[in-house]
Amino acid sequence: MGGRFMAQGKPLPEQEQWFDLLPVEKRLISYSLGLGLVLLVLLVWVSHTAL
Asked: What is the total count of domains within the chain?
């Protein structure tokens, strides 16, 4: 068999249903990742200029 299946051949609960992300969820994820990257770059820049 292979994969993450139980002995009876039933999928595990997390595999039973798949829901696509809503547009607002995709937007929130992209904003969060973008903000995290901007803050990381800002932190690196500040740490290099503070020396």
From this structure: 1
The alpha helices in the chain, defined as continuous H runs, are: 13-16, 23-49
Q: 42: domain range?
A: 20-49
Whether residue 11 contacts residue 1, with contact meaning beta carbons closer than 8 Å, is answered with no
Phi-psi region of 6 (alpha: psi -120 to 50; beta: other; left: phi over 0): beta
| Cβ pair 6, 12 in contact under 8 A | yes
Please report which confidence band the pLDDT of residue 8 belongs to, taking 50, 70 and 90 as the band edges: low
Contact 21, 29 (CB under 8 A): yes
Rounded to whole angstroms, how far apart are CA atoms 37 and 1? 41
